[in-house]
Amino acid sequence: MPATRTRKKVADLGAVAAGLAHEIRNPLNSLYINSQLLEEMLSELPERSVPQKDDLLSLARANLKVTQRLNDTLSGFLRFARPPAMDLSLVDLNRIVEETLRFLEVDFSYHGVALKTRYHASPLPLLADEKQLKQALLNLLLNAEEALDKEEKVIRVSTGARGGRPFVRIQDNGRGIPRADRRQIFRIFFTTRKNGSGLGLSIVRQIIHQHGGTISLRSREGHGTTVTVSLPFEAQFRAMYPGRLPLALPPRADR
Ligand SMILES: Nc1ncnc2c1ncn2[C@@H]1O[C@H](COP(=O)(O)OP(=O)(O)O)[C@@H](O)[C@H]1O
Ligand SMILES: [Mg+2]
């Protein structure tokens, strides 16, 4: 099949999948709410009023968990199929990284993860969708955390500028990625984790590409993984999309 026809077919399939996901969303939502109610009602029954109360309750809880998971998968897929519009503003990559890490601080210390950070000495101005960029970083940091399998758990995060471009690097000393998996990890729904969704990295890649950036990965099995996200400076980003961006941005506190 010629390349253009193949591409059209893939695009059509994508639209069908997104439509299907939308169709499933409402009934799934009812199912989710009903499962919640059922679980509540069962747990409030007086002890021994129904002989199989415990069995019923554990069935209801299992259903609730499955519907919750389906809901998450569906929302993730819809987000991927129809990425939200970019809400651009002038931001400092250092601050974005710092705030994302602050969000994870408690979780990291609870799990015994040593976090080591190194920030570029001066601000790194980007034109970015702050919420989306934080989402991407969060996904990468959670992957790093989930990969940690050693007694000493370390995640290093640094920012800098290299080759005239700002970057953020996330390094873990976890299990690493087997060679055979490396080409697959960005594919939607690819996961090696028992409770994984396989959505994290496909969304990360989408967000980074929308920001005109690149993502690269180095990994050694058994030793750890380093992910580097490189992004254009504000001026470079403007040059990449001439005429398509607002010339003046509203003033921000961090400008
Ligand atoms: N830092 C990492 N170390 C080891 N494996 C990783 C790392 N990041 C991603 N992976 C691999 O890539 C897969 C896909 O990641 P992702 O798209 O975030 O989905 P999920 O986290 O739901 O599995 C993971 O299941 C894991 O096998
Ligand atoms: Mg993930």
* CATH class descriptor of the largest domain: Alpha Beta
Helices, by number, come to 7
Order of helices and strands: HHEHEEHEEHHEEH
Question: How are the strands ordered across the major sheet?
Answer: 2-4-5-7-6
Give the helix proportion (percent range): 40-55%
Beta-strand portion reads: 15-25%
From the alpha carbons, calculate the radius of gyration and give it in angstroms. 22 Å
Shape: globular
Write out the CATH superfamily name of the largest domain: Histidine kinase-like ATPase, C-terminal domain
Structural class based on helices, strands and sheet pairing: alpha+beta
CATH topology name of the largest domain, in short, is Heat Shock Protein 90
Explained architecture:
- This protein has 7 helices and 7 strands.
- It is of the alpha+beta class.
- It has 2 domains: 3-81; 88-240, Histidine kinase-like ATPase, C-terminal domain (Heat Shock Protein 90), CATH 3.30.565.
- It has a 5-stranded mixed sheet, with helices on one face. Strands 1-3 form a two-stranded antiparallel sheet.
- The termini are far apart.
- The mean pLDDT is 91.
- Bound molecules: adenosine-5'-diphosphate and magnesium ion (MG).
- Adenosine-5'-diphosphate binds at residues 139, 143-144, 147, 172, 174-177, 181, 185, 190-193, 196-202, 225.
- The site of adenosine-5'-diphosphate has 23 residues, from helix 4 and helix 6.
